[in-house]
Amino acid sequence: MEQHLFYSTCYCGHLEIVRLLLNDNRIDVNKPNIYDETPLYIACQEGHIDIVKVLLNDQRVVDMNKVTQAGQTSFLIACQNGYIDIVKYLLVSRREEVDINQKDNDGKTGLDWVRERGGEEEDSLVELLKSFQRNQNETRTILRKQLDLPGNLFSFILFFIDLFFNHLFVITLLYLCISFFFLKETKLKRRILNLKRII
What we know:
The chain is about 65% helix and about 0% strand. It is an all-alpha fold. Helix 5 packs parallel to helix 7.
């Protein structure tokens, strides 16, 4: 039941519900439906870029190149439907290499579908895919800048800064609580001493 709800929310683009369901341990983010379509594939097919981003950031999503019964991958369907920004995010994702040469049951690759669609945006995507074929690392670096995504080293540094400040915050909070406790205790002792003097 929960798994069907997860497919439906990815299909319909309900971002907040997808986020909520990702916290449910019963959800298998890689489990395909009866057509071998994963939740990532469904979000790519429907053009829900925010859901694609959330799924790509979830470390449990492991199979970006899962092939459906139609011979398509998440990358291929995004190309076929002309979702250029989704294609860019899939190319930038470093968790596994995107298979841009996968052919569907019609014998077409993502690049073939983009060429068939035509248009200005598609022409720029054709150039992007050719560039990716020539030099993946360079193309990823360019895409990261375009999409305002940090590079790997920058992400690593940000992680440790965040970790440091979170720990610093906790330590500061503990210090304040302990100080407050001792301050109260000290004031209480003074009052008791003052009462003893009066008595």
